[in-house]
Inverse folding.
């Protein structure tokens, strides 16, 4: 059932007051006018600046305006006085429903009882939900869906047709390019999509499907306004990740899983992945690379921003953060070091009054029930700190263990970081560097190259293999410092998580599970 059909059914069933949560007033008004036309009803709209006017009245027009109805009580009285069947659209009425506005709340409750025996309906439209307890039983709340690909496609096709007709700028929009642009625009309102399409045309002097970055930049604005999530401009891709071939293959196979073709094939949108392993092995880098590979916005979920000193605010913050992520989906949500964020959930009742446990419960419920295409990449260093509820299948698609890089992977990492510093890898003795860096993580290899660069620059010499070898010899890798801890992690991961680098056979996996 479409949203329009649902609203029409509620109107025909004489539900007195509908409360639609959205900032897209024009889309709601369009739906109400279509329903009213089919049911032979009039449509009126109210704002505190214009009062009650016929829907569609131009903003500049003074004809038909009734200044007295700018007051909410006068506007509600007009609803009662209206004899003919009608729909009344009240925009941003929520401030008048706050506690303390007793007269307005009481009047609205009286009118609700009257509307049940009439062919009139009040529709409240607001971006936030504000319902006093006195009206709980009288108001029906509806969440207005974001525009889908069809609506966005109509908007894009209309813009393309106007450009072709005017001939002002070229239109280079083939079917794959159109699909890429619409896929990136999912999660925007129609107004936001119209703005970003116009920005593409003005900035690039053409309309093409290669301007996905402009659409993602528009979504970045939404994130900044929320204040709860961080937007990351992902510059790294999987070419900057050494090794981890199994994880890369898994990600690549799901690159097209957000398309309509995948839905038609019967595939659900991928839910997420948990990356376990020692620090510095590339887990966070992989989260950024997924965003770049799939050309989706990357949001960092900072649990520290969720917690507030006010009772109940932490739970509300996480719900708001989730709502923002879903509103711009498809998107990659990066939850870094989730083990530290929720490590105290088991004893939360004794330490913080249960706040951490409630926040964790809200997050877990969302992971299980979410329908929006939000791909979660969670990273963790300490397996023992992970709550067992997080590891259950169904919340995330897969658990990968990111081990210390093997010799071939270390060679790739040396190549990547030498090239990143404008050095040709062929000028270095890579086998010697690999042999000198057992148990080194990728971050430690990068740090050694940077240290060698400092030494070479100070000595006014060009960087050589000797400089890097000296830096490696002076480094004590974390794998030696925390050898027992890493051994415990490897033992836990054997048979419980997929190795991100080595593909295990079915037989190997079965043997690993034998106690």
């Amino acid at each position: 059932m479409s949203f329009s059909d649902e609203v029409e059914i509620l109107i025909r069933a004489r539900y007195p007051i509908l409360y639609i949560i959205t900032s897209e007033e024009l889309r709601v008004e369009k739906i109400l006018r279509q329903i009213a036309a089919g049911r032979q009803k009039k449509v009126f709209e109210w704002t505190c600046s214009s009062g009650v006017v016929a829907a569609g009245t131009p903003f500049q027009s003074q004809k038909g305006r009734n200044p007295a109805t700018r007051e909410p009580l006068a506007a509600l009285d007009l609803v009662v006085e209206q004899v003919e069947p009608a729909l009344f659209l009240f925009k941003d009425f929520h401030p008048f429903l706050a506690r303390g506005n007793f007269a307005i709340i009481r009047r609205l409750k009286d009118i609700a009882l009257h509307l049940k025996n009439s062919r009139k309906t009040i529709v409240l439209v607001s971006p936030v939900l504000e319902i006093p307890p006195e009206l709980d039983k009288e108001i029906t709340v509806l969440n207005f869906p974001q525009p889908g690909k069809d609506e966005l496609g109509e908007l894009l096709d209309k813009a393309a047709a106007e450009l072709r007709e005017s001939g002002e700028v070229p239109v280079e929009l083939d079917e794959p390019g159109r699909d890429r642009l619409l896929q990136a625009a999912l999660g925007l309102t129609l107004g936001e999509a119209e703005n970003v399409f116009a920005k593409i045309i003005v900035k690039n002097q053409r309309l093409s499907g290669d301007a996905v970055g402009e659409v993602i930049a528009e979504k970045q604005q939404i994130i900044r306004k929320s204040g709860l999530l961080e937007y990351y401009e992902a510059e790294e891709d999987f070419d900057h990740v050494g090794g981890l071939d199994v994880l890369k293959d898994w990600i690549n196979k799901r690159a097209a899983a957000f398309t309509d073709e995948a839905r038609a094939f019967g595939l659900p949108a991928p839910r997420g992945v948990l990356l376990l392993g020692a620090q510095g092995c590339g887990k966070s880098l992989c989260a950024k690379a997924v965003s770049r590979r799939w050309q989706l916005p990357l949001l960092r979920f900072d649990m520290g921003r969720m917690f507030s000193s006010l009772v109940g605010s932490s739970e509300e913050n996480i719900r708001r953060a989730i709502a923002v992520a879903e509103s711009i989906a498809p998107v990659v949500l990066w939850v870094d070091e989730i083990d530290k964020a929720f490590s105290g959930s088991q004893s939360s009742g004794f330490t913080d009054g249960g706040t951490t446990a409630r926040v964790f419960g809200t997050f877990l419920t969302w992971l299980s029930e979410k329908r929006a295409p939000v791909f979660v990449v969670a990273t963790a260093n300490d397996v023992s700190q992970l709550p067992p509820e997080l590891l259950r299948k169904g919340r995330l698609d897969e658990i990968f263990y990111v081990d210390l890089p093997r010799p071939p992977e270390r060679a790739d990492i040396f190549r990547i970081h030498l090239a990143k510093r404008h050095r040709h890898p062929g000028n270095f003795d890579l086998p010697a560097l690999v042999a000198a860096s057992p148990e080194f993580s990728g971050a430690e290899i990068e740090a050694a190259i940077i240290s060698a660069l400092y030494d070479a620059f100070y000595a006014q010499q060009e960087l050589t293999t000797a400089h890097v070898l000296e830096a490696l010899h002076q480094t004590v890798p974390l794998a030696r410092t925390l050898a027992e801890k890493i051994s415990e992690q490897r033992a836990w991961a054997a048979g419980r998580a997929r190795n991100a680098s080595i593909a295990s056979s079915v037989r190997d996996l079965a043997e690993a599970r034998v106690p």
Remarks:
- The first strand starts at residue 17 and ends at 21.
- Confidence is low (pLDDT under 50) at residues 347-351, 505-515.
- The longest helix spans residues 149-166.
